[in-house]
């Protein structure tokens, strides 16, 4: 099923809901990893729902729409709700909802209501009333109260990710003739978050791993996306976001400074190399079909992001005992960053799945562009998988194009196979698995692990996220400047939602053939 929803005439950008063509028959499912992934995706969705209050079986004491990071209450205690993890989970659920899983409506609407309230909670980070400072608070108790203990705060990625998740839902509402709900229930929450991003993006904060207080590439990347799509969304709800427009080019400008020439440095400051999974997460979370293999926004198939994928994955090859004997060019166990000491430093499920997802995104884009370009920057990445690779552009009718895509696909599947190998037989995924023995470690049933699996599964099946961005999104100002802008902070009051959100009223559907090729099997 394919659908194109046109934006308002004043807006040049557009939203596509793209579904892959269904595989011709069940017997194309001969790959054991493919079979496992399809089954595991169903389990993953069930387990994510188990982590959402109050009806999820592991989140009974959590409020409606509150998403716990994990049911684990000790060693480690993740029985809290993080703004970041929750936003990432809801973004995935919104995608599934947009693609037909209507039953997720309740969790999504409850999430919007819960966030409107959480935004008003005063915490050690501050409050909404004092220039939105409270929005930088990273986590809350499951009954929606401030967490008063010491923590790495503020964290500036949370509001940006929440804005992105809510905009995805808001766009669906607008596209399905529920514009009043987008305006009255979604936009006021989004506006606070966009105001926060515009005001504080150029201040240091804690990174997504909650360890480094500095400037983080991941944070900048999700902030850039939020302001770009926030500006478009504002116009769709008949408002405007001048502060989005003034700040987003400067964030993109700043992002360029993290490129080292061979990999993306995760953050400035500290003694680490900066080789870090968060840069892959940034790339897959900023994926948009509108940007092709653009280097400036570090798209998954960009030469920069592919070179980065190699430097990142190679940094673990000799680090973990589990990787012994795995040849260059084959998937290896990967963790957050090579210097990691949390639980003594181990592979994480969500990082292996991110390594796979980036490559599925790349395959999809090359198919769509009907060509693939190898540059001096990405050459080493390709040579690992296809020894004969040389710098050049290969169109889709060539054997080189086809062979490289098959090799990339097999390499990506290799990362999924590693996850399969170390998942519990009942499908449970914790946060990490032991770098020597492969047994599960740290928080059980981690929401983010399941979300990563659902995303990798969608991308592998050519189910792509709605594009974000607008023409000219990749143009960088000639000079990067330290800057900030002030928006609007106001308590969001959501009105009651309808019991059922009807789909598709007044939506024109058009077939989009160019955007929906299934990756080569
Ligand atoms: C908000 O920030 C502005 C500019 O930095 C400052 O003048 C003002 O006092 C702040 N207001 C509050 C309530 O913190
Ligand atoms: C603020 O932006 C300037 C210009 O891009 C950059 O040099 C500086 O490092 C940034 N500071 C922070 C904390 O983001
Ligand atoms: C290697 O590349 C050369 C030159 O592009 C080509 O003629 C040859 O067929 C390639 N070999 C393989 C195995 O793809
Ligand atoms: C899956 O199995 C593990 C290990 O036996 C167990 O701890 C966990 O509770 C199970 N998960 C579920 C959701 O049943």
From TrEMBL:
This enzyme's EC code(s): 3.2.1.3
Keyword Signal: yes
The protein's enzyme class: hydrolase
Signal peptide (residue range): 1-20
GO molecular function: glucan 1,4-alpha-glucosidase activity
Boundaries of every GH15-like domain copy: 43-456
Alphabetically ordered keywords of this record: Carbohydrate metabolism, Glycoprotein, Glycosidase, Hydrolase, Polysaccharide degradation, Signal
Catalytic activity of the protein: Hydrolysis of terminal (1->4)-linked alpha-D-glucose residues successively from non-reducing ends of the chains with release of beta-D-glucose
PANTHER family: GLUCOAMYLASE, TREHALASE
Family in the record: Belongs to the glycosyl hydrolase 15 family.
Protein's name in the database: glucan 1,4-alpha-glucosidase
Species of provenance: Sporothrix epigloea
């Amino acid at each position: 099923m394919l659908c194109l929803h046109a934006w308002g005439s004043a807006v040049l950008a557009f939203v596509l809901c793209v579904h892959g063509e269904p595989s011709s028959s069940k017997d194309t499912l001969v790959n054991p990893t493919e079979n496992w992934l399809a089954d595991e995706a169903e389990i993953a969705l069930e387990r994510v729902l188990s982590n959402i209050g109050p009806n999820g079986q592991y989140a009974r004491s959590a409020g409606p729409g509150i998403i716990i990071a994990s049911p684990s209450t000790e060693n480690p205690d993740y029985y809290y709700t993080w703004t970041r993890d929750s936003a990432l989970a809801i973004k995935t659920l919104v995608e599934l909802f947009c693609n037909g899983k209507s039953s997720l409506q309740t969790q999504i609407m409850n999430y919007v209501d819960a966030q409107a309230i959480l935004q008003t909670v005063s915490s050690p980070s501050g409050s909404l009333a004092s220039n939105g400072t409270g929005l930088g608070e990273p986590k809350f108790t499951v009954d929606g109260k401030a967490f008063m203990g010491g923590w790495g705060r503020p964290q500036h990625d949370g509001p940006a990710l929440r804005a992105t998740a809510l905009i995805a839902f808001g766009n669906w509402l607008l596209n399905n003739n529920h514009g009043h709900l987008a305006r009255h229930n979604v936009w006021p929450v989004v506006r606070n978050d966009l105001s926060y991003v515009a005001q504080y993006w150029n201040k240091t904060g804690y990174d997504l791993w909650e360890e480094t207080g500095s400037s983080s590439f991941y944070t900048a990347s999700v902030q850039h996306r939020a302001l770009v799509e926030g500006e478009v969304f504002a116009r769709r709800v008949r408002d405007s976001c001048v502060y989005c427009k003034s700040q987003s080019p400067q964030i993109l400008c700043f992002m360029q400074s993290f490129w080292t020439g061979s990999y993306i440095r995760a953050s400035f400051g500290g003694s680490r190399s900066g080789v870090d999974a968060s840069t892959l997460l940034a790339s897959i979370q900023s994926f948009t079909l509108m940007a092709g293999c653009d280097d400036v926004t570090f798209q998954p198939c960009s030469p920069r992001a592919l070179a980065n994928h190699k430097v990142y994955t190679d940094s673990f090859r000799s680090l973990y005992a589990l990787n012994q004997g795995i040849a260059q060019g084959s998937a290896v166990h990967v963790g957050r960053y090579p210097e990691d000491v949390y639980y003594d430093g181990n592979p994480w499920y969500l990082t292996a799945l991110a390594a796979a997802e980036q490559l599925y995104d790349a395959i999809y884009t090359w198919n769509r562009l009907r060509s693939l370009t190898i540059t001096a920057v990405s050459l080493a990445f390709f040579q690992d998988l296809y020894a004969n690779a040389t710098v050049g552009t290969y169109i889709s009718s060539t054997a080189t194009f086809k062979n490289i895509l098959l090799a990339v696909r097999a390499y990506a599947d290799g990362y999924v196979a590693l996850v399969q190998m170390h998942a519990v037989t009942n499908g449970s995924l914790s946060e990490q698995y032991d770098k020597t023995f492969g047994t599960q470690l740290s928080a059980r049933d981690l929401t983010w692990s399941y979300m990563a699996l659902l995303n990798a599964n969608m991308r592998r099946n050519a189910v792509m996220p709605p594009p974000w961005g607008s023409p000219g999104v990749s143009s960088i100002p000639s000079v990067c400047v330290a800057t900030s802008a002030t928006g609007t902070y106001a308590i969001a009051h959501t009105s009651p939602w309808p019991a059922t959100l009807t789909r598709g009223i007044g939506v024109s559907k058009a077939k989009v053939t160019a955007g929906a090729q299934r990756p080569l099997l």
